[in-house]
Design goal:
By secondary structure, the protein is an alpha/beta fold. Helix content is 33%, strand content 22%. It has one domain (3-320): Metallo-beta-lactamase, Chain A (4-Layer Sandwich). It has helices at 3-6, 10-17, 44-53, 96-104, 121-124, 127-132, 141-147, 230-243, 260-282, 287-292, 300-303, 310-320; strands at residues 28-29, 32-33, 58-63, 66-71, 73-79, 85-88, 111-115, 136-140, 151-153, 156-158, 169-171, 174-179, 182-188, 198-202, 207-209, 249-251. It has a 7-stranded mixed beta sheet with strand order 3-4-5-6-7-8-11. It has a 5-stranded mixed beta sheet with strand order 12-13-14-15-16, with no helix packed on it. Helix 2 runs antiparallel to helix 12 and helix 8 (230-243) packs antiparallel against helix 9 (260-282). The radius of gyration is 19 Å and the shape is globular.
Length: 321
């Protein structure tokens, strides 16, 4: 099968991106996805940032010195203590003032390090602000590469990041950070949501931050434009399930705090959709025919109310098989 057929064409991508009007990486407001409320804007990127940045920051305590901050973009983990504050992901630019205020309120010293789970703007948008605050930034080497590039993503024109927004430190396979009595184990995951994803395990607290490898209770966005693929998403879920136990708290990129049971349900949905789409595609059906067949119909009531509308999720699965 040709590479062109294996991947979404630009025409197919944007045809079905239209059903996902506001993009995959946006917040919810009062139970309704903000993208469903959005109006056309001259700069879609600024519009997305403004939508997400307006969401209030909510705090969930995960341990004596570890919290999850959620709202304006991907969920942030914040470890605080005498060594200073270490965060995983950074929200979007308009949320920086609120994020910094929340971090300062944790006590235990200034911000020392921010870790990017991947390159997307709702997770790495405040790298430059982190640097201005005197802290370092850490990510996989592919994240640095992707941040230096231009991208067309879901109708948004993403420009190369400034030099100050690039990670000050990168790694290839794994990396360990010791801070505030905690051991953070960072591991690269082969292409799944993107080709830049890492997972971060807080070993003592028994907390796993999965970034956008895990969308809790909803269909995930898979960025095929930078290497994402459905089989990688499933494999990353399998790897995580083998790593965690029933007491592990699992931070998703989007959605509420999860655990092994909720991650298992998510993984099973991914497998079900993958297998159904694969069967139809292997039988010779076109993308349009597969979307029209509604292979997720029985799942949509639960899983189709998040960031990803069902038809667009099916489109991405089809294109990455």
């Amino acid at each position: 099968m040709s590479r062109e057929r294996e991947q979404l064409s630009r025409r197919e991508w944007f045809r079905y991106a239209g059903v996902f009007a506001g993009g995959a990486m946006v917040a919810h407001a009062a139970g309704t996805p903000v993208w469903a409320q959005a109006q056309a804007a001259a700069d879609p990127m600024d519009e997305r940032r403004a939508q997400m940045g307006a969401a209030p920051i909510q705090t969930t305590r995960l341990g004596p010195n570890l919290v999850m901050l959620s709202g304006p973009g991907g969920n942030v983990a914040a470890l605080h203590g005498p060594d200073g504050v270490v965060i995983v992901d950074t929200f979007v630019k308009p949320a920086w003032a609120g994020l910094k205020q929340a971090l300062d309120g944790l006590g235990g010293g200034p911000l020392k390090l921010a870790i990017d789970t991947h390159w997307h703007f709702d997770h790495a948008d405040n790298n430059e602000r982190v640097r201005e605050a005197g802290a370092a930034t850490l990510a996989h080497e592919n994240t640095r590469t992707r941040l230096t590039q231009s991208h067309d993503l879901l109708g948004m024109k993403i420009k190369p990041a400034s030099a100050a927004s690039l990670p000050t430190q990168t790694f290839r396979d794994s990396h360990t950070v010791y801070a505030n009595g905690e051991t953070l184990q960072l591991a690269y995951v082969k292409p799944a949501h993107t080709d830049t994803d890492i997972a971060v395990m807080f070993a003592s607290a028994n907390v796993l931050h999965m970034g956008d490898l895990y969308f809790n209770g909803m269909y995930p966005f898979i960025d095929a434009t930078t290497g994402g693929q459905i089989n990688g998403m499933i494999e990353s879920a399998d790897t995580a399930l083998a790593l965690v136990d029933a007491q592990t708290k699992i931070i998703p990129g989007h959605g509420p705090l999860g655990d092994k049971a909720s991650l298992g349900k998510y993984r099973d949905v991914l497998v079900t959709v993958r297998d159904r789409v694969q069967k139809l595609k292997s039988g010779g059906q076109s993308l349009e025919q597969v979307v029209a067949a509604k292979p997720t119909k029985d799942l949509d009531e639960v899983w189709g109310k998040g960031f990803m509308q069902p038809d667009f999720f099916v489109t991405i699965v089809y294109g990455t098989l």
